[in-house]
Amino acid sequence: MKRILWNRRPTSPADLGDIDEIVIHDPLLVHIEQMDDRCWWIGIESPEGGWWAGVFSATSRGVMTFGQQENDGVTWDKDDTQESRP
């Protein structure tokens, strides 16, 4: 099962949102790269051939966010927000 849980969904194309967690079982590839002192990129290729990319970034005070950069063909079996959880 592939699932994503949002703390806050994106509100515009420029907004990455804020993700609590993602789960992809048996991915074909996971690539994590540090882009600078406060930014890390993650790319995950799913077994079905789609791929997903996200960004971890931190402010100078250490506040970290995790947002979605791009989704190209990953279909989530479960796509929820914190507000929709029981």
List keywords for this structure.
86 residues, 7 strands, three-stranded mixed β-sheet, four-stranded antiparallel β-sheet, mainly beta
Topology:
Elements: E1 3-8, E2 18-23, E3 29-36, E4 39-45, E5 51-58, E6 64-72, E7 78-81
Parallel strand pairs: 1-7
Antiparallel strand pairs: 1-2, 3-4, 4-5, 5-6
Molecular structure report:
- By secondary structure, this protein is mainly beta.
- The protein has one domain (3-84).
- The chain is 0% helix and 56% strand.
- It contains no helices and 7 strands.
- It has strands at 3-8, 18-23, 29-36, 39-45, 51-58, 64-72, 78-81.
- Strands 3-4-5-6 form a 4-stranded antiparallel sheet, with no helix packed on it. A 3-stranded mixed sheet has the order 2-1-7, with no helix packed on it.
- The radius of gyration is 13 Å and the shape is globular.
- The mean pLDDT is 93.
Order of SSEs, N→C? EEEEEEE
Task: Characterize the main sheet.
Answer: 4 strands, antiparallel
Mean pLDDT across all residues, rounded? 93
Any idea how many domains?
A: 1
Strand arrangement, largest sheet?
A: 3-4-5-6
Quick overview of this protein structure:
The protein has one domain. Helices cover 0% and strands 56% of the residues.
